[in-house]
Amino acid sequence: MAILEIRNLSKNYGKGENQVKALKHIEFQINQGEFVALLGTSGSGKSTLLNIIGGLDTAAKGEIKIQGKNIAKLKAKELAIFRRRNIGFVFQNYSLMPVLNVYDNVALPVSFDRGRHIDHAYIKQLLQDLKIWDKRTKYPSELSGGQQQRVAIARALANKPSLILADEPTGNLDSKTTNDVISLLKTSGKQYNQTILMVTHNEIIAQSCDRIIRIEDGFLLENGKDGGFYA
What is the pLDDT of residue 155? Predict the structure, then answer.
């Protein structure tokens, strides 16, 4: 079952002679439970595509369906609520709130959603699974890079979203911590039935995923594990 469907998606920046076509007629789908790598060099359009899927940017044309809902047609308030309840984000720079401790950083997305109960038992389980429960009262500045990324992963899972979008989540980490984070994403995805789309420029990391979607100069070049293309 497809949880994410992209149809004829294009994105332009600027106008006239200065116009840059960042994405050109992108089409693919991702099924429930898949861990997919979005692979490409710097400037290929992969982060732009991820931001559009996450509702952080808009496309010139095309459809972005998440669980059957075309988010391109949602009004700003509707999109904000849909994104908060259905999409989790993991960023390269962690994007943790420096004035909040680990526990409060993880609970933050839920607290933004008025009327939703914070499932403290679930958050405790997340922190235990990610081996940072003992760090729950620490602040981001007191943690290592790997520990901060674990907090970011827990925060992405806190709202129990159906789709996790990870933008170069290991870009600032050493090789050992990188392997740990990829393993954690895989484990968390299976344990909590998450679908994960991860942007990376690292071929080795991409090969560890279920499938690779390769993008270059705004075009989709490859959509498959075996080097072939299929939708």
Answer: 93
